[in-house]
């Protein structure tokens, strides 16, 4: 099967649009897509035009860059400015503004900061510059945790003395529980993340359906996956059910990926973690287990940072828990743009504000599916 | 200064492992040898033998089309090309996009001390071959050597001049409602190949599209004279950025059909893996043409009959004057803005 085209078929999308219209709820329902990649997929394919008027898609806290709290960003920047440190991290982290400057600005002023595709790149950095400590600034969810666990294991196995990890990884289900339990939101159902679910499995959401009575559907990132996932949620809501359904069975198993889970369990343990906008959520982060404590940057090189300065006027925290739309923020599209982002949700390629500003600018034109362009058939 | 009477030129890369040293840029004997034995012969032009301070070439036109560009690609050798080929194509193509025939190039080399002579020779050979293919002559140049650490391997700089093919300059501002939008081949091949190489991804057959477009432009302009309103090569920032630039310059709304835009499956796959959108990946051997609708079929046929345009496609149209924007009709039938990229394309985290 052509995975890149079969799940983007126009005829099937039109069929799902009709099915969604037939299943349109009488009252307004709010469905949250947890994952930033879902948010981007919704906008990139123009999916909102396929949904009934009573269905609202709300973006959740599923962008690892966005949910990293201000203190951790400041801490990373402070470490990066240390001439004995080589900070390695994922690309989007570079532009996130801290209380003063960003990693990108620190790099421009001489800090050793590099972008890695894989956390394991940190090992090469450590070997190349024995005089510096190669620090991996680890952000991400369950998807990324196995790769960072692999880094920890390899650093120990190779006995590299100059590798450390600044651990800011998060676990998704505890954050979903916090959102489901918060009164202000009235989220009717969740589109569960795709890649995260591949690791933790469909059963990891059972407690949300059972204890919080919220329908959960795991959906892939392709347009048809998402439309079908929304349809499954509407069916559950119409029937008054709350269950976990897995639309993404071609990738996600009920029990997840046992090898990845074993790797995570070997290296990490759940710890309380601070989320931007959500506060500290119990057991929602990954901390290094005792056997790997030697890699923990905060233990190896303790560094005090001042209380973070809030980003004046920035609503990222509220946007991240779905309690405000990016357009509600006074900075959105004015002081805060793709070129000059103020908050992390505008910085990240998966950020909600970036998605809204980049793709939602069509106004009324986005409300209706496009008519055939004259040129549409002229290509392949 | 003439080469006559100086020490005999050392055979190029005579000893294996030879590399550029600071002396190659110091203006003395080593510099002279590098220029006369390694660089100039490859471009074989009278002016490079004379070695005056500037070149003097015949030029019979009232208006000069001129462009300049620096090249810092990492890695310097990539699937389907290298920095030498890129330096010629980049400037040749920029000159050609005004509806011009590029004629002469200058070539500046900024080399880091320690750079392998053999690599330099490969780059020069490639630049020379590409110049021949493009029909341009390299007539002047400069070489500087920087201390180790002050540059990353090698940088090239080219300036190109040419003359208008039809006496009329093409400009992005001339794109007009009703124009058909054509692209000369699959997008994102160069960016995809370079990004994949950087990420250590082996995508087998994916190579850069790097190519000089002067011949393709001449063919197009010959087939539909007067009907081509604007040409652009979608290099850095990719097709999306180029379309936005044209929409802004002309004050028009552009509509593009995603399904009509040719993208190689390898590029689409690399994009999925690395989190990069092919619409923002650089091309180095493609052009976007804004052509009067009535001439669009002929223009497309002209592009397709050239080896560099055989996969050309009609991808959209200019719909109206108004707020400049590019609207993409998505593959599944939705619509979204196709916006400018902010910052630098980065691989995704999860």
Structure description:
The complex is a heterodimer of chains A (380) and B (350). Chain A has 380 residues and is of the alpha/beta class. Chain A is built from 17 helices and 11 strands. Chain A has helices spanning 3-6, 10-22, 36-44, 64-67, 70-80, 103-108, 121-128, 145-157, 172-181, 194-200, 206-212, 223-239, 258-267, 297-300, 316-320, 344-347, 352-359, and strands at residues 29-35, 55-62, 85-89, 112-115, 133-140, 163-169, 189-192, 216-218, 244-246, 268-275, 279-288. In chain A, the strands form 3 sheets. A 5-stranded parallel beta sheet of chain A has the order 2-1-7-8-9. The model of chain A is unreliable at 363-380 (pLDDT under 50). With 350 residues, chain B is α+β, with helices and mostly antiparallel strands. In chain B, strand 12 and strand 13 (335-337) form a beta hairpin. In chain B, helix 1 (29-43) runs parallel beside helix 4 (117-134). The N and C termini of chain B lie far apart (60 Å). Chains A and B meet through helix 2 and helix 3 of A and strand 9, helix 8, strand 11, strand 12 and strand 13 of B.
Keywords:
heterodimer, A: 380 residues, alpha/beta, five-stranded parallel sheet, 17 helices, 37% helix, disordered C terminus, B: 350 residues, alpha+beta, seven-stranded mixed sheet, four-stranded mixed sheet, 9 helices, 30% helix
Structural classification of chain A: alpha/beta
Mean pLDDT of chain A: 90
State the helix count of chain B.
9
Taken in chain order, the helices and strands of chain A follow as HHEHEHHEHEHEHEHEHHEHEHEEHHHH
Count of beta strands of chain A: 11
* Average pLDDT reading of chain B: 90
- Roughly what percent helix of chain B? 25-40%
Secondary-structure map:
The complex is a heterodimer of chains A (380) and B (350).
Chain A: H1 3-6, H2 10-22, E1 29-35, H3 36-44, E2 55-62, H4 64-67, H5 70-80, E3 85-89, H6 103-108, E4 112-115, H7 121-128, E5 133-140, H8 145-157, E6 163-169, H9 172-181, E7 189-192, H10 194-200, H11 206-212, E8 216-218, H12 223-239, E9 244-246, H13 258-267, E10 268-275, E11 279-288, H14 297-300, H15 316-320, H16 344-347, H17 352-359
Parallel strand pairs in A: 1-2, 1-7, 3-4, 3-5, 5-6, 7-8, 8-9
Antiparallel strand pairs in A: 10-11
Helix pairs in contact in A: 2-12, 3-17, 8-13
Chain B: H1 29-43, H2 46-50, E1 65-71, E2 77-78, E3 81-82, H3 83-96, E4 100-112, H4 117-134, E5 137-146, E6 154-164, E7 180-183, H5 189-199, H6 214-223, E8 228-232, H7 238-250, E9 252-257, H8 265-274, E10 288-291, H9 296-304, E11 313-321, E12 325-329, E13 335-337
Parallel strand pairs in B: 4-5, 9-12
Antiparallel strand pairs in B: 1-6, 2-3, 4-6, 7-10, 7-11, 8-10, 9-11, 12-13
Helix pairs in contact in B: 1-4, 3-4, 5-8, 6-9
């Amino acid at each position: 099967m052509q995975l890149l085209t079969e799940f983007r078929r126009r005829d099937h999308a039109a069929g799902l649009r009709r099915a969604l219209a037939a299943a349109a709820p009488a009252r307004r329902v709010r469905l949250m897509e947890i994952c930033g990649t879902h948010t981007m997929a919704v906008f990139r394919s123009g999916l909102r035009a396929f949904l009934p008027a009573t269905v609202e898609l709300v973006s959740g806290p599923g962008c690892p860059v966005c949910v990293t709290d201000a203190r951790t960003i400041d801490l990373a920047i402070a470490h990066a400015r240390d001439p004995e440190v080589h900070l390695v991290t994922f690309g989007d982290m570079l532009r996130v503004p801290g209380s003063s400057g960003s990693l990108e600005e620190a790099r421009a002023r001489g800090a050793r900061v590099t972008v890695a595709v894989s956390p394991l790149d940190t090992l090469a950095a450590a070997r190349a510059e024995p005089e510096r400590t190669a620090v991996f600034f680890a952000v991400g969810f369950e998807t990324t945790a196995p790769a960072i666990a692999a880094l920890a294991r390899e650093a120990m196995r190779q006995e590299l003395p100059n590798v450390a990890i600044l651990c800011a990884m998060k676990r998704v289900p505890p954050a979903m529980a916090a959102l489901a339990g918060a009164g202000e939101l009235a989220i009717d159902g969740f589109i569960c993340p795709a890649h995260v679910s591949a690791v933790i499995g469909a059963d990891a959401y059972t407690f949300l359906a059972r204890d919080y009575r919220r329908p959960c559907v795991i959906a892939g990132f392709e347009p048809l996956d998402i439309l079908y996932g929304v349809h499954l949620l509407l069916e559950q809501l119409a029937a008054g059910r709350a269950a976990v359904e897995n639309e993404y069975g071609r990738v996600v198993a009920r029990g997840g990926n046992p090898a990845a889970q074993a790797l995570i369990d070997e290296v990490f343990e759940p710890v309380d973690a601070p989320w931007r906008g959500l506060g500290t959520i119990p057991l929602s982060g990954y901390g290094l287990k005792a056997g790997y404590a030697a890699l923990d940057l905060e233990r190896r090189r303790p560094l005090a940072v001042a209380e973070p300065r809030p980003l004046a006027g920035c609503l990222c925290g509220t946007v991240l828990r779905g309690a405000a739309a990016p357009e509600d923020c006074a900075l959105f599209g004015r002081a805060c743009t793709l070129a000059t982002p103020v908050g992390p949700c505008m910085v990240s390629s998966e950020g909600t504000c970036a998605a809204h500003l980049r793709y939602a600018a069509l106004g009324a034109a986005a409300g209706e599916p496009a008519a055939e362009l004259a040129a549409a058939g002229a290509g392949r | 200064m003439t080469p006559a009477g100086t020490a005999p030129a050392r055979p190029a890369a005579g000893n294996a492992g030879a590399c550029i040293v600071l002396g190659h840029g110091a203006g003395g004997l080593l510099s002279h040898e590098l220029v006369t034995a390694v660089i100039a012969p490859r471009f074989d032009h009278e002016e490079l033998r004379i070695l005056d301070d500037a070149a003097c070439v015949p030029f019979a036109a009232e208006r000069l089309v001129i462009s300049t560009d620096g090249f810092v690609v990492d890695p310097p050798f990539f699937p389907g090309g290298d920095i030498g080929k890129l330096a010629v194509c980049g400037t040749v193509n920029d000159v050609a996009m005004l509806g011009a025939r590029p004629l002469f190039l200058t070539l500046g080399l900024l080399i880091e001390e320690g750079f392998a002579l053999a690599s330099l020779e490969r780059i020069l050979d490639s630049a020379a071959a590409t110049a021949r293919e493009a029909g341009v002559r390299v007539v002047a140049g400069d070489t500087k050597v920087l201390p180790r650490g002050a540059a990353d391997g090698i940088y090239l700089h080219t300036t190109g001049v040419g003359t208008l093919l039809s006496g009329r300059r093409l400009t992005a501002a001339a794109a007009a409602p009703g124009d058909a939008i054509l692209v000369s081949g699959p997008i994102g091949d160069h960016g995809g190949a370079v990004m994949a190489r950087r990420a250590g991804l082996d995508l087998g057959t994916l190579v850069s599209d790097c190519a000089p477009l002067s011949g393709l432009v001449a063919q197009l302009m010959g087939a539909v004279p007067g009907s081509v309103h604007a040409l652009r090569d979608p290099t850095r920032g990719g097709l999306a950025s180029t379309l936005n630039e044209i929409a802004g310059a002309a004050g028009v709304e552009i509509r593009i059909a995603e399904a009509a835009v040719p993208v190689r499956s390898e590029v689409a796959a690399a994009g999925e893996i690395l989190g990069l959108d092919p619409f923002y990946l650089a091309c180095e051997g493609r052009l976007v043409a804004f052509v009067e609708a009535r001439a669009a079929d002929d223009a497309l046929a002209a592009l397709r009959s050239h080896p560099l345009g055989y996969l050309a496609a009609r991808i959209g149209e200019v719909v109206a004057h108004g707020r400049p924007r590019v609207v993409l009709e998505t593959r599944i039938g939705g619509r979204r803005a196709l916006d400018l990229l902010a910052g630098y394309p980065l691989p995704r985290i999860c």
